[in-house]
Design brief:
The protein is an alpha+beta fold and about 500 residues long. About 20% of the residues lie in helices and about 40% in strands. The termini are far apart.
C-alpha cells in the first residue's frame, strides 16, 4: 500500500471517531459545515481555507507536498462517498468522470491556504454534502460544505419571442416546505395581476414584450424560515422601438421603415433569418421585398422618394428559425397644396395648405418663412412680424392676402404632436412681375371701341385747332403778298400771248 493511500485511510478513520469536532490543524472557531446556494447553470465555489493563524505559522506559504481530496456524500445514507477531485503531492489530478471538466481548484491558491472547489456550470444533480481533506506536513484539515441548488426554468425554451405566453418556474433542493414565492423584475416587486399571473410559485407572462426582458429574481421562503433567491437574465426576441411605429416623411424625400430585432439572432444560436415586407393597398397585399441578414438585426425598407400614394401601413415579418414575429409600420406623408399652381403673380391672394396623410387629430402646424440670405436684420425682423399675422398653431392653411416680392423663397410647414416635432415639409414660392387686372370679358369690346373713338375725336380736335390758329394769324409782310398776287396774273398774260402768236404762224 502506498504511503499516500495509507495516510488517507488513517485520516478518514480519525474523522469517523471525531464526528462533530474539528480535527487538529483546523482554524479555531471555524464551523464544521457551511451551506452554499447556487443557481443551476451558474458557477459555485465551495469554500475551504486555512485559518490566518495557520498561514502565519507556515511562514505564509504551505510546502509543496500538499494533497487535497474532495468527496461527495451519497444521495442516501447507504451510499458510500465518491471522489470528486483529488490533487496528490506530485500534482497529479484525478477527477470523477461525471463532473469532468466542471470541477477545479486553483494551483496558485493551494500554497496560500485556499483549497476551495469550483464547479462551473452547476447542475441540479450536484446538490449534496461535500467534504474536503487537506494534508500538508503533519497537519490535516477538513471542510464540509452543503451545496444547495436553486433552479429557474422558462417554458417554452429559448428563444423567447414577444407576444408568446411565457412561464417562469423557480424551485430548490431545500427539504423544508415552501411557504411563499416572490418575483422581482429589475429590482422591483411584481404584483400578480393583469399581465402577470402566479400559479404554485410559477409566474406566467401572458403577452411578453421586449420591455419584460432583463433581470428576474425569485425569492423562496420555507417553513424553517430559510430564504433562498436566484436571478435569471431573461432575453426576449422582438423589435426595438414602439409597438406600432409611425414614420413621417415629406413628399419627395427618402424614407426608411424600421424593422430592427432586439437581439442578434446568433445570440440564440440561430443562423437562418429571413425578413419579408408587404403592404396592404387597395385590398390587396403587395410584396415590397425579401431580405436575408445573418450578421445584423436590422431589416429596414428604403423608399427613395415617397409620394402621397406611398402612404399607408406596411407589414414586416421576420422568420427566426421555426418562429415568425411581425410588426406593422405606418408611413405618413407631409404635403403642401397651393391654391395657385406654378409661379404666382405679384399681388395675388395665395393659400398654402399643409396636409398629413394619417392624422391622429391632435397635430399642430407651424409655418415659417426661411430667409435664404438673411443679411439685413431689419428686413428679417419685418418678415417675421409679417408672418405672425398669418401663422397658426392649429390651422394647417397659411394665407398670404397679397403676395409681394419679399414672400419669395422657401416656406416650411412643421407638424407637432404630443411627443414633439414630427417633421416638416417645404414649398418653394416663385413670384412673377406686377399683375395687370384684365376687365370682364363682356365689356372688353365696348372698352376698346370707346378708347378708339376717344383717340379719333382728340386727333380731329387738334387738327381743327391748328387750322383755325393759322387762319386767324395776321400776315407778317403784307406788301410782299400783294406783289406776288400782281405778278402771277402778268405772267399768265404773257404766256397766253405767246400761244396766240404760235397759232397765227401756223
Amino acid at each position: 500500500m502506498r504511503p499516500v493511500s495509507l495516510v488517507l485511510f488513517l485520516t478518514f478513520t480519525l474523522l469517523a471517531f471525531n464526528a462533530g469536532h474539528i480535527l487538529p490543524g483546523a482554524a479555531e472557531g471555524e464551523r464544521r459545515e457551511q451551506k452554499v446556494w447556487a443557481r443551476a447553470g451558474s458557477s459555485a465555489i465551495l469554500p475551504c481555507h486555512l485559518s490566518p493563524r495557520k498561514i502565519r505559522k507556515s511562514w505564509k506559504q504551505l510546502p509543496d507536498k500538499t494533497s487535497v481530496l474532495w468527496k461527495r456524500q451519497g444521495g442516501s445514507a447507504h451510499q458510500e462517498p465518491h471522489v470528486v477531485l483529488e490533487v496528490e503531492y506530485s500534482g497529479l489530478r484525478k477527477t470523477a468522470l461525471p463532473m469532468r471538466p466542471r470541477v477545479s481548484v486553483q494551483d496558485s491558491a493551494l500554497r496560500n491556504g485556499n483549497f476551495s472547489l469550483q464547479i462551473n456550470p452547476v447542475r441540479s444533480e450536484d446538490a449534496g454534502l461535500y467534504e474536503a481533506l487537506v494534508t500538508y506536513d503533519t497537519e490535516v484539515q477538513s471542510c464540509q460544505v452543503e451545496l444547495g441548488i436553486i433552479t429557474v426554468t422558462i417554458s417554452p425554451s429559448s428563444p423567447v419571442v414577444e407576444n408568446e405566453p411565457l412561464l417562469l418556474s423557480c424551485n430548490s433542493s431545500h427539504r423544508a416546505s415552501l411557504v411563499e414565492t416572490r418575483w422581482f423584475h429589475n429590482g422591483r416587486p411584481i404584483s400578480t395581476s393583469g399581465a402577470f399571473c402566479s400559479l404554485h410559485g410559477a409566474l406566467s407572462i401572458l403577452r411578453p414584450a421586449t420591455s419584460d426582458a432583463g433581470s428576474w429574481r425569485c425569492q423562496l421562503r420555507y417553513s424553517d424560515n430559510e430564504i433562498i433567491s436566484a436571478t435569471y437574465n431573461l432575453r426576449i426576441l422582438g423589435f426595438d422601438g414602439p409597438t406600432n411605429p409611425v414614420v413621417y416623411a415629406a413628399a419627395g424625400s427618402a424614407a426608411d421603415l424600421p424593422c430592427t430585432l432586439s437581439y442578434l439572432p446568433r445570440a440564440f444560436g440561430i443562423n437562418v433569418v429571413t425578413a419579408h415586407w408587404s403592404r396592404l393597398a387597395g385590398g390587396h397585399l403587395q410584396d415590397r421585398g425579401i431580405s436575408q441578414n445573418w450578421n445584423n438585426r436590422s431589416f429596414l425598407l428604403h423608399i427613395p422618394a415617397v409620394g402621397p400614394g406611398d402612404a399607408g401601413q406596411y407589414h414586416c415579418a421576420v422568420s427566426v428559425g421555426s418562429k415568425t414575429i411581425s410588426r406593422d409600420v405606418t408611413l405618413a406623408v407631409f404635403t403642401v397644396t397651393p391654391s395657385i399652381q406654378g409661379p404666382v403673380s405679384e399681388g395675388s391672394r395665395l393659400l398654402l395648405s399643409c396636409g398629413l396623410t394619417h392624422p391622429r387629430g391632435h397635430e399642430r402646424f407651424q409655418w415659417k418663412h426661411l430667409d435664404s440670405a438673411p443679411t439685413n436684420s431689419k428686413l428679417a425682423a419685418a418678415i417675421s412680424r409679417n408672418l405672425e399675422g398669418h401663422m397658426s398653431q392649429t390651422d394647417p392653411t397659411l394665407e398670404i392676402p397679397q403676395v409681394s416680392q419679399k414672400d419669395t423663397g422657401t416656406w416650411e410647414c412643421s407638424i407637432y404632436g404630443p411627443e414633439g416635432r414630427l417633421g416638416a415639409v417645404q414649398y418653394e414660392l416663385q413670384i412673377t412681375g406686377a399683375q395687370v387686372s384684365s376687365p370682364p370679358t363682356i365689356f372688353s369690346g365696348q372698352v376698346t371701341f370707346g378708347l378708339t373713338l376717344t383717340l379719333f375725336f382728340l386727333l380731329t380736335v387738334c387738327v381743327l385747332a391748328l387750322a383755325l390758329q393759322k387762319r386767324a394769324r395776321p400776315p407778317a409782310f403784307p406788301a410782299l403778298e400783294r406783289m406776288v398776287a400782281v405778278t402771277v396774273p402778268r405772267k399768265e398774260m404773257e404766256e397766253n400771248q405767246k400761244e396766240k402768236i404760235q397759232q397765227t404762224e401756223c
